[in-house]
């Protein structure tokens, strides 16, 4: 990891010591296996203790890690014969949203998701995963195509939010998001949504209306960023950690509030530690839910989707 998180430093320091001991033992032909095993067990215990008690702010940091797997990482592992489509047929192609068609266990599907970069150069190309209106219109074009050919839609959500630049506003950012919300609510094909990193406000929700919505264990989903909330409430973005504690933005919070349907397990340390492990868990979840959804009448699916989102936020 290029920039380890503060709460991970003791673990990484111990792992480095283990590597040093292993090298010393190898170079000097000394048997230190028992000592090294003790330290490795200590690392495992430290990880279990740390990652089972992450604060909301620590989860925010983990969800934002540049090393965290992206939409294309998961597509590569669970979708075969993927063919990416480009452009919204109106203005341009927005590379912060990727989408196309492929096979999910021999079932034709449409896959769409936010795409962040792995380094600064790619992040600039991907606009740091913040879509323009044409990105949402591209997504909508692909969703309507999926409806036409009766293909289920798989969504991957990972964005700080929709891009709020002048050009995006001039081209109808709010309208593009609103249209997606309307069209997804009545799209006549099953939709499964997976939040894999950040789920930021309307920028996420514009790809987030689904029959099933799940989140990775250390992902987040909220109406605004902690920095944004603290700036509004206390006029101080440095109080973001305090804001995160009250926002109920973790997967665990949202599962308790019935906003999402399932939490998908990540390995100790986060999804970037074992992408294949997370991809298998995502695939297992989608497989199970697709079987159920594809055996339902589409009118029942639409009614259940409507009820699902109307029930959110009810206060007794």
TrEMBL record:
Belongs to the AccA family. Residues 31-292 form the CoA carboxyltransferase C-terminal domain. One of its GO terms (cellular component) is acetyl-CoA carboxylase complex. Acetyl-CoA carboxylase is a heterohexamer composed of biotin carboxyl carrier protein (AccB), biotin carboxylase (AccC) and two subunits each of ACCase subunit alpha (AccA) and ACCase subunit beta (AccD). Pathway: Lipid metabolism; malonyl-CoA biosynthesis; malonyl-CoA from acetyl-CoA: step 1/1. GO terms for molecular function: acetyl-CoA carboxylase activity; ATP binding; carboxyl- or carbamoyltransferase activity. Its main location: cytoplasm. Keywords: ATP-binding, Cytoplasm, Fatty acid biosynthesis, Fatty acid metabolism, Ligase, Lipid biosynthesis, Lipid metabolism, Nucleotide-binding, Transferase. Gene3D superfamilies: 2-enoyl-CoA Hydratase, Chain A, domain 1. It is an enzyme of class 2 (transferase). Component of the acetyl coenzyme A carboxylase (ACC) complex. First, biotin carboxylase catalyzes the carboxylation of biotin on its carrier protein (BCCP) and then the CO(2) group is transferred by the carboxyltransferase to acetyl-CoA to form malonyl-CoA. It catalyses: N(6)-carboxybiotinyl-L-lysyl-[protein] + acetyl-CoA = N(6)-biotinyl-L-lysyl-[protein] + malonyl-CoA. This is Acetyl-coenzyme A carboxylase carboxyl transferase subunit alpha. It is found in: Cytoplasm. NCBIfam families: accA, AccA_sub, PRK05724.1. GO terms for biological process: fatty acid biosynthetic process; malonyl-CoA biosynthetic process. Its EC number is 2.1.3.15. HAMAP family: AcetylCoA_CT_alpha. It comes from Caldisalinibacter kiritimatiensis. It holds the Pfam family ACCA.
